[in-house]
Sequence to fold (215 residues):
Amino acid sequence: MSAPPPVTGVGPLSPAQLRDWYAVPPEHADGTWVRGSFITTLDGRATGPDGRAGSLNEGSEGDHAVFNHLREWADVVVVGAGTARAEGYTPMAGVPLAVVSRGTLEPESLRRPDGDAGEVVFISGHGTDITAAGVLATLHDHGWRRIVLEGGPHLFGSWLRERLVNELCVTVRPVLTGGDGPLLVPPGVDLGGLLGSPTHLLTWGGDILVRTRLG
Ligand SMILES: NC(=O)c1ccc[n+]([C@@H]2O[C@H](COP(=O)([O-])OP(=O)(O)OC[C@H]3O[C@@H](n4cnc5c(N)ncnc54)[C@H](OP(=O)(O)O)[C@@H]3O)[C@@H](O)[C@H]2O)c1
Fold:
């Protein structure tokens, strides 16, 4: 049986509508649910011309709204250390941040400042890549099950390879950057064919927001 066509709609959405549009399927509401949260160009690039995703989502009201909604939903936000460095991540108010690295040196910007900023957990592979299953086990040790993976592509590749991403929430900006910036899925990550069935397509401003179920 073929999958039902995706639900379509037009933004802007109110906070209550966002909750409906991005609700986790009820049968998974109490379990682990991993969401990839990304923005991409039409040519699949993960960064703007300055090498940051931050420049890609400038002016995208829909991306900001969904990005923030997913953070509010999450028990934890997970990023690779490359993204934490490139995007200048700092401890976040209201939600813990897990940073994955092969190294052991926590970037200065992630040291917890005074105040009520959230916990930062540094997950190190001690010289080697950590499997997604290994990272997930550490997150479970903390009791975190609602997981938002904000990238970047290298980290995301391992989670996709291991089939541990339940869905993608991707903003497509209808622009091209060309060049040799990182792709959403790094070259060489074999996904074994086409992966994903879209459940939602939303146009918001000039952007397309896609929700795609992976597993
Ligand atoms: N478009 C988007 O939505 C989006 C989202 C996120 C990032 N980005 C962009 O993507 C670029 C970064 O790409 P990237 O692929 O280098 O990002 P990344 O995966 O965040 O960073 C790679 C680094 O993260 C650590 N890492 C990742 N996976 C690991 C694993 N399985 N085990 C151990 N360590 C792991 C390693 O850090 P160490 O070097 O410390 O060992 C590795 O060098 C930046 O320009 C950023 O702006 C775009």
Observations:
- The CA atoms of residues 100 and 123 lie 5 Å apart.
- The chain has one domain: 7-15+31-213.
- The pocket of NAP is lined by residues 38-40, 46-47, 51-53, 56, 79-83, 86-87, 100-103, 125, 129-130, 150-155, 158, 182 (CB under 6 Å).
